[in-house]
Amino acid sequence: MSIPPIVVMAARSGWRWQWSRLMGGLGPADADGNYCRPISDHLEAERPDQAQLRGRSEQQRPHLIIGRSCPWAHRTWLVHRLRGLGDSLTVLMATADHRAGRWQLDPAWLGCSSLLDLYRACLAPPSHRATVPALVDPQGPRILGNESAQLVELLNRWPASEDAPDLDPPDFQEMIQRWQTLLQPAVNDGVYRCGFARGQQAYDRAETALFEALEQVEQALAERGPWLCGETLTLADVRLFPTLIRWELVYSPLFGCSRRPLWQFPHLWAWRRRFHDLPGVAETCDAKAWRQDYFGALFPLNPGGIVPAGPELSTLVNSTIPEA
């Protein structure tokens, strides 16, 4: 028995209305349907005095709280690994609770089983959303910072061994900032502007800006690679990698970032593989967690909750460009 067209139209209209309401909570938009990331209050990042960090036990050290699926937290985890900060800064993993819509701490720390409880224990203002990443000093306790762009700069200045890389060298800071100005809105946030767009025109604007930015990255790598700033690995590379390593697994299938596969940007493809091969980086990449959290949590984009099959991450980062 076929369903009458009027019933189908009514169902579509009702679902569209419900979808718009759900998207309003997931990703606010302006009057033209463009996704607008909520402005979140954050604390200015601060580093404890180096003398105060000496002699602390693992539980007494500051903790960097991250979630495996969060690309913003991934940035800070990368700096932690690349600079070898494990002896002075402990990583604490938070897991996404899809039902409660919050981050749970695993294991509990300072008597707190959720990130929200920890923010409250640190007397964070109510306007501060309990998000990752968060850098917390148990002495207090107090939050030392919870904004990724600031935290990667702070962790680059964190006490480390003499051979730890400087990812923000003075001679490159202007170039690093230029990349940040381009990549943050067009790529890092751009994939979300595609996925959370409310209409075709909003999506088209975001998608066009996204691929234009990738073209600029491709050209820069071709002219002066192997890294975004030339011969030196910097925070510009760190900030881009978490987005591009999730590309085929999340952003292309779920957010519609699918105009061109990444392998059609050969220098960018090689750059991603080169970064993934850096010591400690592979251990920060959990494709299963990414897909479970994105496909499982973003109900308006994937109401069935089905996590589709996808390529193995090891295949993506180890393969060469297909022959033309």
Task: Present the secondary structure layout.
Blueprint: H1 5-26, H2 50-53, E1 63-67, H3 71-82, E2 90-97, E3 102-109, E4 112-114, H4 115-121, E5 134-137, E6 142-145, H5 148-156, H6 173-188, H7 190-195, H8 200-224, H9 235-245, H10 247-255, H11 266-276, H12 287-297, H13 313-318
Parallel strand pairs: 1-2
Antiparallel strand pairs: 1-5, 2-3, 3-4, 5-6
Mean pLDDT: 90
Strand order of the largest sheet: 4-3-2-1-5-6
Q: Determine Rg (CA atoms, Å).
A: 21 Å
- Estimated share of beta-strand residues: 5-15%
Helix content: 40-55%
Kindly identify the CATH topology of the largest domain: Glutathione S-transferase Yfyf (Class Pi), Chain A, domain 2
Structural category is alpha+beta
Q: Briefly, what CATH class of the largest domain?
A: Mainly Alpha
Q: What kind of sheet is the major sheet?
A: 6 strands, mixed
Straight-line distance between termini: 49 Å
Shape: globular
Give me the CATH architecture of the largest domain, please: Up-down Bundle
Order of helices and strands: HHEHEEEHEEHHHHHHHHH
Work out the helix count: 13
Number of domains: 2
Can you walk through the features of this model?
The protein has about 325 residues and is of the alpha+beta class. The chain has two domains: about 50-155, Glutaredoxin (3-Layer(aba) Sandwich); about 170-320, Glutathione S-transferase Yfyf (Class Pi), Chain A, domain 2. The chain is built from 13 helices and six strands. The chain has a six-stranded mixed β-sheet. Strand 2 and strand 3 form a beta hairpin.
Descriptive tags:
6 strands, 13 helices, 2 domains, 6-stranded mixed β-sheet, alpha+beta, globular, 46% helix, Glutathione S-transferase Yfyf (Class Pi), Chain A, domain 2, Glutaredoxin, 324 residues
